[in-house]
Amino acid sequence: MSDIIHLLPDKIANQIAAGEVIQRPASAVKEMLENAVDAGADEVRLFVNDAGKSLVQVIDNGKGMSGTDARMSFERHATSKISRIDDLFQIRTMGFRGEALASIAAVAQVEMKTRRSEDELGTFLEIENSQVKRQESCACPVGTNISMKNLFFNVPARRNFLKSNAAEMRHIVDEFIHVALAFPDIFFSLNSNGQEVFHLEKGSLKQRIVQLLGNSHASKLVGVREQTDYLNIEGFVGKPDSAKKTRGDQYFIVNNRYIRSAYLNHAVMNAFQDMIPADSYPLYVLRIEIDPAQLDINVHPTKQEIKFEDEKVVYAFVQAAVKHALAQYSVTPTLDFDLDPGIQSLDAISKPFNAEKQRTVQGGSLFRSFTDQHQAHFIERSRRSLTDTSFLPDTPITTGLDPVQETQIPISTEWPTRSADDLLSPLDINEHGWIVQLQQSFILAPKNRGMVIVHQQIAHERILYEKMNDALTGKPVAVQRSLFPTTLELSPPDAILLSSLIPDLFQLGYQVEVFGGNSFVIQGSPLDADAVLASRTIENILEQFKHFNPDLRFSGREKLMRSLARQRAVKTGKVLSEKEMRSLVGELALCKITNLGIDGQPTYFNFKEEHFFKMFGSNG
Ligand code: ADP
Ligand code: MG
């Protein structure tokens, strides 16, 4: 039998290796911008077409390359930045692995013009599939002008994996922002399909933040600056009252490199503790300077994750620096839980959860039946241990009612499981039957000879979601035209994002029109939504889109419907009129899925006649 092991041809090996470094157009953007910065440029221009799928071009005024270096730069492991293994511990440049250009050349068509100031003529180079097609002298400005065309033209499988232009463009803008934040003293511009999206003059970090994230941030920033022998921290955090409900703009830059770090994020969140509601996120841009010997940036091919020699120390510094800054500016803590006062005063929130209460609750069979895993109505969040009292304040609505009162009810039966005839149907709706609201959150209504208890917010989210789903696949929802249309002034990346959402928003009743540049006008909003809130609603959508976790489960439309359903649903704590209650229950009964909310929670519970009898130990 012949041997079966062989070496992969260079071309294939290169393509495989390239996959680690270049996953999408944005990866090339990052590498090319970093090369320009490493070359000492102070003006860097980025051009993309079709979200980088057909073109990513970076023009810099850096030091350029000699003809030989230009040719060499595309070889794998070709770098001018390190030469000995020890150099790894003194990295001051963005790149050092010598893989980026080789990877790009393996999966795209590349053209480069480059010239050093000492050379009269520059070099033109054309490479495709890792093969040099053309190399000749040319007249060109000092610096480097490199274009990557038709990414993955030779790897169709990868090309097919690319997302929509809107999604890929967001990745590009993210990478651009990361580099631009790290180097406020370099001019950057971003041009997409011939339109200038960013034009960032050199300036201070604060100016850069405002240029990138919008003017409205200027008055909301608190400066952070601590200098120690071990490390320096400087930058800005958002004032607590400007914290947002979605993971906002949060950036760590360590030795000029944007990094992700859940650990350091925790340190900042810790410093903000008790100043912002638990489910909101402050803005921060924090730059950390530390001796490179204290770092390992080589742990990840794209270098976005790094290891600190002593993580705990860095954590403590970050936390202390942010705390200090917040205290110095004596920002008053504000609590805004977006809750009705009625809910804030619920026992579950306002009263301490003491040991006595705990015992009563544990003994109560109703509680058990609500939390018993084997029940069809089992509510996931209640599974936490009862000694873990932390679940109480943030899930008062899910756990239901005041535990003490509830446990007075002696029931000995199993909680009912749901069968088809338990489902709410239009036949259950009796226009003249009784209907009441409980705790401004639940609607009780008769069903057959028992009753249902409906969660008004979860149910309404379901209703709105299904209506929007219909609207996106059928005719647009009814619209009210505004007499005084509101104008939205957006940051460039938000403008790109909103443009991509306009058609779907239109179907859903939000008539948004481009007004030139980054301005938009809201001409109309859904008839059944509060028109005054339309611009706020759109801003919230953009916010949520930008910071939706990279979770790819949901399509753009799905995110849009969810965001709108959540925003527009009637909240718990809102008093409803009898008419509103009837229409809510009636519309829920008409839904395709009546019993589950958009996150899978129950919309209602069913109490059948026989359960009432069983609760009292009789058979009816
Ligand atoms: P690395 O940045 O890790 O060294 P790259 O593949 O990104 O590897 O680049 C290889 C080499 O090409 C760099 O080390 C640098 O010497 C040179 N180079 C790349 N881009 C530029 C540029 N824009 N200007 C000058 N030199 C460049
Ligand atoms: Mg590089």
Assess the beta-strand content as a share of residues: 15-25%
Report the CATH C-level class of the largest domain.
Answer: Alpha Beta
Q: How many extended strands?
A: 22
CATH architecture heading of the largest domain: 2-Layer Sandwich
- The CATH H-level superfamily of the largest domain is Histidine kinase-like ATPase, C-terminal domain
Instruction: Provide the residue-averaged pLDDT.
Output: 80
What is the element layout, followed by pairings?
Layout: H1 10-21, H2 25-38, E1 43-49, E2 55-60, H3 67-72, H4 100-107, E3 109-115, E4 122-128, E5 131-138, E6 143-149, H5 156-161, H6 165-182, E7 187-192, E8 195-200, H7 205-213, E9 221-227, E10 231-238, E11 250-254, E12 257-259, H8 262-271, E13 284-290, E14 295-296, E15 307-308, H9 311-328, H10 341-344, H11 347-350, H12 355-363, H13 365-371, H14 391-394, H15 396-399, H16 403-406, E16 436-438, E17 442-447, E18 450-455, H17 456-473, E19 479-489, H18 492-507, E20 511-514, E21 519-526, H19 534-547, H20 556-568, H21 578-590, E22 604-607, H22 609-615
Parallel strand pairs: 1-7, 11-13
Antiparallel strand pairs: 1-2, 2-6, 3-4, 3-6, 4-5, 7-8, 9-10, 10-13, 11-12, 14-15, 16-17, 17-18, 18-22, 19-21, 20-21
Helix pairs in contact: 1-4, 2-6, 6-7, 6-18, 8-9, 17-20, 17-21, 19-20
This protein binds adenosine-5'-diphosphate and magnesium ion.
